[in-house]
Amino acid sequence: MHWQTLDTWIVVAGALSAVSCALLGNFLVLRRASMMGDAISHAVLPGLALAFLITDSRDSIAMFVGAGVVGVLTAVMTQWVHRVGRVDPSASMGVVFTGLFALGLILIVRGADHVDLDPGCVLYGAIELTPLDTVFLGGWDVPRAVVILAVVFVINALFVAVFFKELRISSFDPQLSTTVGINATVMHHALMVLVAITAVASFESVGSILVIAMLIVPAASAQLLTDRLGSMVLVSAAIAVASAVLGHAGAMTVPGWFGFEDTSTAGMIAVAAGVMFAVTWVAAPRQGLVGKLLHRVMVRLRVLQEDILGVLYRLEEYRGGEGAGLSIAKLGEVLALRPAFASVAIRGLVKRGEVTRTGHGYGLTRGGREAAARLVRAHRLWESYLVKFLNLPPDHVHGPAERLEHVTDAAMHEALADRTDRPEHDPQGRAIPPSP
Amino acid sequence: MLLVVVGLGTAAPVLTHADASAGFWARAVRMISLRDHNTRVVLIGTSLLGMSAGVVGTFMLLRKRALVGDALSHATLPGIALAFMVMTHLGMDGKSLVGLLAGGVITSVAGLACVLLIRRTTRVKDDAALGIVLGVFFGLGVALLGVIQSMRGGNAAGLESFIYGKTASMLTSDAVLIAVAAVGVVLVCALLFKEFALICFDVPYAGSQGWPVLWLDVVLMGLVVIVTVIGLQAVGLILVIALLVTPPAAARFWTDRLDVTVIVAAVIGAASGLVGAGLSAMVPRLPAGAIIVSVATAVFIASLVFGTTRGVLVRVIQHLGLTQRIAEQHLLRAMYESAEASQRGSAVSNDRAVGWSSLIDARSWSQRELRRLIGRARRHGWIVEAPAPSQRTSTDVAAQSANDPGTSDRWFRLTETGLAEASRVIRNHRLWEMYLITHADVAPSHVDRDADQVEHVLGPEMVRSLIELLEVQGRGASVPPSPHVVGVPPALPR
Amino acid sequence: MNKPSAATTTNASAAPVHPRASLAEPAPWPGAPKVATGAEHPEDAPLSIHDMTVAYDRKPVLWDIDYNAPQGKLIGIIGPNGAGKSTLIKAVLGLVPMASGKVSIFGKPYSKQRRLVGYVPQRESVDWDFPVSALDVVAMGLYRRIGWCLPVTRRHRNAAREALDRVGMADYADRQISRLSGGQQQRVFLARALVQDALVYFMDEPFAGVDAATEQAIIALLQELRRGGKTVLVVHHDLQTVETYFDELLLLNMRIVAAGETGEVFTQENLHKTYGGRLTLLDQAAEAMARKGVRR
Fold first, then answer.
1. What's the CA gap between B274 and B263, in Å, rounded?
2. Which ipTM did the prediction report?
C-alpha cells in the first residue's frame, strides 16, 4: 500500500460523508423507516436534474434546494399515497421513489446537452477524483467536496445535538410526541430534508450507494452494541469513520491479494461497514451470537454448580453428618451429565472455596454449606408456596422448585417465607434450613 | 479509475440505426406493425416480464413485504460481477447472460438468507435488515465492478447495463429466457393460488391447518428472485422493484377480489412493459427501464384517482352521495314527525300540510339548503306543494308569521311514495335507536344503517323484541314510535 | 371415544373436591381423593395436554399444564389478561413452540389429527382490507381438504355458502370483508371453522367486540355444535356470561387454577385465585429467569 496525501483527503471525504449519514441513520432505524433512506437517496435525482436544467449550472445552492424539496416531497407523497390511497406504507414508498427516480433518469438522458450529470456517477460517485478539485482555504488546498461535506456534517451534528430530546421522543412515540407539542411529522420532514441534503452532498464524491449503506449499517451495528440512544449515536459515528478508513485501505489492498489492481473506494467502504456489522452480529458482548451462547453456557454452569451444592447438602442431611463426599463420576450420574462437564463445574466450586476434596471425592466446605443451605431453603420454600398457592400436588412441585431456586434473591427469599408463614418443614416433611 | 459512463444514451437504438432520418411517424408505423424482428423480441420480452412481476408482486404486496424485492435486486450485482470474473477466468464468454444471471440468483438468495438470519437472531428490525443487505451487497457489487475495470483483458463494458437496464441489448435468446421464466412464474402462482392467498391473508390459521407457511414463503421469495433477475436486463436492478410494487398497488384500486387483482396487476404490468419499451424504441434517447416505470407510475396515479373500487374520486362521490342521502332523510323525517305530532293517536297520513317555518326549525339547515333539498324531494316525487291549510293551528300561525313573507307562505305535504319512503326510513331509524339504547355496550360498526335493513344485521328475532319494547312506550303502529320524545321541535327560543 | 362425559363429576360429591378435579392424575398423592378425569381413557379425550410449559422469549407464560377436555362440552377458558389463554390454544395448535409437554387430540398428536380440529383466531389477527369476499374466507376452511394446487370448485363454494347460511350471513357472501361489521366478520370466521366439519373447535375470544345479536347467534351456534357431539373450547373474558354459556370451565392464570364443571369450579375462591392474588412472587421469579436466561 502506498499512502499519499491524496489518500488522506479521500478518507476524510469518505469519513465526513459516512458520519453525516450515520448520525441521521440512527433515527431512521429507530423509526423503522430505514428504507426511506434508500428511497430518498434515489428520489433526489429529479431534483438534481431540475436544478441543473433551471440554473444551467452545477451551482451547489440550487442543487441543495432541489434535493431538499424532493426529499420532503418523497416523504409527503409516500404519506399521502398511504393515507389517501390506503396503500401499504412500504409499497407506497416503493411506488413514489421509483416513479421519481425514473423521472430523474429521463430528465437527465433527455437533457443530456444541458445536464452535466452522469447517472453512474450518482450511484457510485468519484471519490478518487475529489482531491483534484480544490479550493484554497487558510493556507491549505482543501478539496471542494471536503469543504461541502464538512459543512453538511456540522449541520447534521448540530441538528442531532440540539434536537436530541425531540428526536428521541418523536422516534419512540410519535403520537405522544405530537400531544406534548413536538410535532412528529415536522421532525420527520426535517430529518428527510437533511437526508436529502446529505445525499446530494455525498453523491458527487461517494455516490448514493454509500449513502444508503451508511444511513443504516452503522446505526444497526450500534444498536447491537448499546442500549442507550446517546451512546448509539456516538458508536454509529465511530463505526462510520472506521468504515471509511478500512474501506479505502481495503480498496487499495484487498484486490491485490487476488492479483488485481485497486477498486472503487465507495463500494469498499460499504463492504467494510458490512463486515463490521457482521463482526458485531457475531461478537457483540450482549446481543452478539457468541455473547448469547457464552451467556447461556455460563448460566448452565452456574445452575449446575448450585445443583451440585444441593446434592451434597442433601447427602449430608441424609447421612446425618458433615463431611460426606461424592466422586465426580457419582455426581455426574446423580445429575445426569457428562463427567467432563461436572469436573469443570467442580473446579469452579473448588476455586470459590465452596467445595473441597475429601477422602471420598468432593464435599462441602463451611462456606459451601451456607450457600447450599440457602439454596435448599429456597427450594423447599418454593415447594411450600407452590402447594399452597398453586394447588400443585406435593409430588409435583420438585421440578418447578428446582428451577425457581436458582433465581431466588434475598428479597424474594424473605417474601417467600412471609407468604408461606415460615414453615419448618416442606410438603414432604423435610426440614427447611433456617434462614442464615 | 472512475467507472465509465453507463450506456444510457444508447438505450433506444433498436431502430435508430435502421433509419435515423425517417422521422418519428415512420418509426412509429414500423414499430406498431412489428415488422422489425428485434422490436418484436423486445416488446414480447418486456410485456411478459411485466405480467409475471405483476402477478408475483400482488402476493408480495398483500404479504406486506413489498420492498423485499428491492433488497434482492440490489443483491444481484455482486453475483453478476463474480460470475463475469469466474467465467472470464475459466476462459468462457464472460457475457453469457445465463451465466451472469445465475450468479445474480446466487447472491440474491444469499442476501435473502442474510435478511432472514438478521431478523431472526438480532433485535434489528425488518426494514433495517433489508437496508443493510441492500447497501452492503450493492457496495460489494460496485467494488467488484471496480476490480473488473482494472482486469487485464477483462472487457467489462456492458455489465453496468444491469444497473439501469438496456433493452436494446436484448437478443432473441434473451427474450426466450425471459419468456420461459415469466410463464413458469405465472404457472406456479396459478397452481399455488389458494395457498399463497391463505398465507397472505391469515398466517396463524394457515399454520393451524398444517400448511407449511415457511416453505410457501420460500417459494414466493424464490419467484421474486426469478422475476428480479430476468428484469435486470430490461429495467435494471434499481427500477425492477417498481414492476413488483406499482402494478399491484394500482390494481388494488379497481377491485376487491384477489383473483381480479392478480389479473389486473398482470395486465397493467404487461401494458407498462409493452408501451414503455415501444416508446423507447420510437423516440430517441428514452431509457427503456425508466420509461416502463414511468408508464406504470402514470397508470398508478390514474388508478389512484379513478379506480372504481377504492379510487379517490369514487370515495369522494360516495361520501357526497351519503351526505345528500342523509339530508333527504332528514327532510322526510321532519315532514313525517311534524305530521305525527299533530295527528296524535291516529295513524300518520299524508293529508296534512307542513309549513316552511316548521321545517326550517326542525334541523340546522339554512334557507338555501332547505330550498334545494325540497326541490330535490319534489323531483323524487316525495313531496308536493300544498295549499295553506284553512284552519291553522296556533303554533303554525305563530311560527309562520315570525318568518319572512317570501318563503313563509309555502306549504308541503308528502305524496304516497313519499309517505312510504318516510315510514321506511323512520322505522329503520327508530329500531336502530332502540337497539343502541337497549344494547349500548357494543354497537355494530361499519353498518350502513339506512341501506342495510335492520333485520339483516340484527336478525328478525332481535327486531321483534325491539318492536315490542317500542310498543310498550307508544302504541302499536306499522311505524314504531320513537324511543325518545319526538314531534315537531318547539320553535326555537328567539 | 364417544364416552359421555358425565363421568367427569361422578365423584363430585366426594368432598373436598380438588380444584383440578378433571386432571389426568389418578391419585395425586397418597390419601388424596380419587377423582375421575374427563374420560376413562385420557388418551381418548378430544384434547389432552400433559406437562405443557410455554415460554415466550425466555419468559414462561404457562406452567405445567395438565388437562383433559371432556367430550361434547362447551368449555370456557377464562382468566385475566396475560394469563396465557390464547397462548394455550396456540401451543396446542403448534403455533407457538412448547418448552415441554405433549398434546394429543383423540389420542394422537395434533399434526395427525388436523382434520378433526377447527380454529377461530382472534379477529385482529388479519388484515380486513384484504381483497377477498366473505365466501372466499369461508372457503379457506376447505383448502386443506381440497389439497395442494387444486382449485376451489363450485361444490366447495356451495359448502361455504351453506356454512355462511348457518351463521346467518348468506346475504353477505359476496361482500368484501372490510365492509362487514365486527360481529359479521366474527361470524365469517366462525363459518370458516364450521365448514371444516371438525370434532374439536378452538375459538380465541369470539365474543370480543361483537354486537349483542352476534353474540346470541354465536352462542346458539355453539350449542348446536354441542348437540352434534362436538367439543368447543372458547377463550372468554366476560365473567357475567360464563355461567350461562359454558358447561365446563378452565380457570387459567399461568397455571391451571381449576378445571371442571362450571357449577363446581366457578366459585369465589377459585376466581380469587385466578384473578385476585396476582402471583407476584411467581411473576418475579419468571422475570428473573428470563433475565438470567435460566432454562427449564
1. 16
2. 0.85
